[in-house]
Recover the amino acids of this structure.
């Protein structure tokens, strides 16, 4: 039986939605993570500090009082965002970034940016205020193949912006391609990346081969095996530029299982077990703590969570819910396609910790 202790992890890319869905999914994240960067793509989007404060309060009200969890809030960038709003965000302790959604790129992104050059003055001010830009890195041009949209975004949007504003700190979120990984490696400053669990585990065959599996449909979409392998090498490398952002994104099952299904994978219920499995397969368990608990905190200027999460590899698989009930509906939990033998031990006094490693 293997035993592993890591600092309490942070999820640096999380969707919680609002209302009943928020109330039913929040404690899966609050149970296993100390903090999370909360995405602002609600309806209406979170475009002001006042809206972010109200949303944060709704999140805190929904958390089990026995759990300690700090939501780190973000703003939704539009072409109407003001310099004053950015200044308020910089002056507000619970604000941690501004999210760039190309208009139409993903769920609730219709209010996003249509022309990146219209917001260059805002990005320049963000650089001056040291506000990170969190990027959904895809173009939305219908002429561009959906499997190429990340690579084209890097070439046509991200790289020109970084040349124009080299001091802007950027997170390229949920990277899905070798192109994205190589671009981060080639950068010498101010570019970091989050990686999701489902992109580390699945390639596009899981979505399309033998029938369409709507609960594996996400944006950016799953890619070829060559890209998945590049993601796994980056995640398990220990490189400080890569850190965990699950992009756990709940949708009601019937909204995914239809002729125009929603994009998103709900992985909060079993994310750490899945991730430990990936790192074990890559013979890189010694780097799990950096990826989950250190690198993201460093980027956002936070102290590493001092308390520990204990993982135990047992001979019998861990049990996770297949569905989360939401009234008469439900949310389908991510199925990695294999049994998970890594269990989270909730009794923090069971094991002696030595060097946060095996």
């Amino acid at each position: 039986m293997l035993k592993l202790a890591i600092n309490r992890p942070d999820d640096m890319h999380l969707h919680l939605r609002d209302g009943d869905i928020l109330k039913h999914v929040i404690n899966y994240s609050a149970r296993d993570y100390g903090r999370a960067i909360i995405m602002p793509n609600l309806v209406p989007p979170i475009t002001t500090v006042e809206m972010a404060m109200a949303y944060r309060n709704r999140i805190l009200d929904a958390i089990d009082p026995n759990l300690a969890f700090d939501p780190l809030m973000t703003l939704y960038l539009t072409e109407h965002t003001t310099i004053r709003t950015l200044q308020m965000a910089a002056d507000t302790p619970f604000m941690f970034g501004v999210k760039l959604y190309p208009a139409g790129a993903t769920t609730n992104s219709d209010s996003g940016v249509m022309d990146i050059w219209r917001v260059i003055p805002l990005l320049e001010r963000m650089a001056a205020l040291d506000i990170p830009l969190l990027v959904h890195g895809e173009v939305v041009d219908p002429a561009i193949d959906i499997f190429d949209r990340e690579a084209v975004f890097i070439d046509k949007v991200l790289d020109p912006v970084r040349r124009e504003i080299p001091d802007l700190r950027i997170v390229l979120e949920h990277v899905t391609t070798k192109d994205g990984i190589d671009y981060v490696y080639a950068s010498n400053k101010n570019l970091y990346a989050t990686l999701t669990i489902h992109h580390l585990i699945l390639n596009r065959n899981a979505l399309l081969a033998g029938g369409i599996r709507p609960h594996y449909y996400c944006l950016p979409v799953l890619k070829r095996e060559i890209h998945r392998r590049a993601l796994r090498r980056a995640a398990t490398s220990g490189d400080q530029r890569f850190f965990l952002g699950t992009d756990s994104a709940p949708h009601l099952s019937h909204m995914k299982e239809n002729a125009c299904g929603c994009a998103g994978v709900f992985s909060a219920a079993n994310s750490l077990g899945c991730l430990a499995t990936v790192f074990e397969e890559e013979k890189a368990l010694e780097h799990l703590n950096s990826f989950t608990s250190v690198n993201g905190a460093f980027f956002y200027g936070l102290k590493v969570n001092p308390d520990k999460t204990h993982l135990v590899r047992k001979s019998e698989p861990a049990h996770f819910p297949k569905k989360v009930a939401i009234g008469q509906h439900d949310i389908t939990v991510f199925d990695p396609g294999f049994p998970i033998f890594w269990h989270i031990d909730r009794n923090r006094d069971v094991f002696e910790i030595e060097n946060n490693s095996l």
About this structure: Residues 149-164 form the longest helix (16 residues).
